[in-house]
Write a structure and sequence with these properties.
8 strands, alpha+beta, Acyl_CoA_acyltransferase, Aminopeptidase, 8-stranded mixed sheet, binds coenzyme A
Length: 173
Amino acid sequence: MDLTFQAGDLTAQAVPDAEAEALQPLLERCEDFHQLAYGRPALADQARRIPAERPPGLTPGQGHLFALKTAAGDVVGLLEALRDFPAPGEWYLGILLLAPEVRGQGRGEAVVRAYEGHVRAQGGRLLRLAVLEQNEAAHRFWTRMGFQPEKWVGPLEQGLKHNRLLRMTQTLG
Ligand SMILES: CC(C)(COP(=O)(O)OP(=O)(O)OC[C@H]1O[C@@H](n2cnc3c(N)ncnc32)[C@H](O)[C@@H]1OP(=O)(O)O)[C@@H](O)C(=O)NCCC(=O)NCCS
């Protein structure tokens, strides 16, 4: 698996699971997203939970975490996903999160397009994700990226909230 890829002016760099804690400051800067999703700020060990909370039974390397860095090396985002989950060729994008100050300038789109290329190059043919019902901006964003609704899931207990999520998919040509 490629350990880095370029996404516009950001570089995606793989973060080993054992070093997930390095992403904690970014999560704390994204309090808006944690309030929206969980009804509270990021937990003190939120970043360490990212690999720990993946579904059971994955093979090593199936779950992957990327830090999104500026040319100066600042971490301004993260992307976490599972390859070949739940079926071979289907990849599941668990988290795409950019720091508030770098949103709304086309970087999210650049990351998604670059990640699609990364997935395709490794045999992925479908990308799936789940958007929170209350995350209207993200729903607009994923629709603009070409994702189609698949199925509503939930309500699921997430933090202090009971969330409904819309699963969306994009076929990679
Ligand atoms: C969702 C997210 C990844 C999108 O990334 P982004 O960089 O903000 O996305 P873009 O800049 O490509 O698009 C966002 C908006 O900025 C606008 N935009 C894009 N390029 C722009 C530019 N150069 N100048 C001004 N506005 C621009 C887009 O039109 C879009 O508007 P919309 O809200 O009407 O859709 C990011 O906002 C984020 O991390 N949000 C918080 C976490 C989250 O919700 N993650 C998704 C969970 S499913």
